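Troubleshooting entry. The earlier prediction with magnesium ion gave an output that would not parse, so I re-checked the input for stray whitespace and re-submitted. Clean input:
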Amino acid sequence: MSGDETALDETARKLFAGPVLFLKSAPELRFLPDPDAPEIAFAGRSNVGKSSLLNRLTNRSSLARTSNTPGRTQELNIFEVGDPVRLRLVDMPGYGFAKAPKDMARKWRFLVNDYLRGRQVLKRTLLLIDARHGIKEIDRELMKMLDDAAVSYRLVLTKADKIKASDLAEVEQATAEEARLHPAAHPEIIATSSEKGLGMDRLRTAVLEASLA
Ligand code: GTP
Ligand code: MG
């Protein structure tokens, strides 16, 4: 524990060190749990590292299934944090997976869009961006959809271990600058590495904070 840990940081750390359970996979919205706890969703391009980040965040190595093959996650996977449950994490299918069969891609897009636009207990979406590539056109489409629907989101850079510190600083700045132009985006971004654990304390606090919003 560092000297400048706030009360919220401490609560977040303890919360994520406690019980985290896989609740269910929802292939359609009607399979979602009753909307009785705040939800935080992990969205982003296929292979960006959503499932890996969820695992690292909860200190579980294989809670959410990860893979080298894009398109691993195909349903909304719901995880419960805390006992009694304080919040739910939602691992979403990725978008922009070129090799996905067309009808499958369409199915995912509807599932993801309907969830993001219509879920009342969704408090914030973490929109993951690969630090090596920065914001892509397909990310901008999702950002616009979230802006239009007034769904609060925060950009999170992933795989920070894969680039030099100087390049990371550059992409962090460029990403934050772009985020500030989007009405529903949190102005600060968080750089993470699920491989090295970078940014996890900040992200845990950000998730808890969002759940209280
Ligand atoms: P879909 O479910 O297909 O949308 O993918 P996803 O976004 O859930 O990605 P996933 O977590 O499955 O990770 C994809 C690949 O990236 C895996 O091979 C991970 O090991 C790798 N990966 C994820 N995060 C990191 C990271 O922080 N650093 C490094 N070096 N590799 C990572
Ligand atoms: Mg996944």
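This one parsed fine. The chain has one domain: 3-211.
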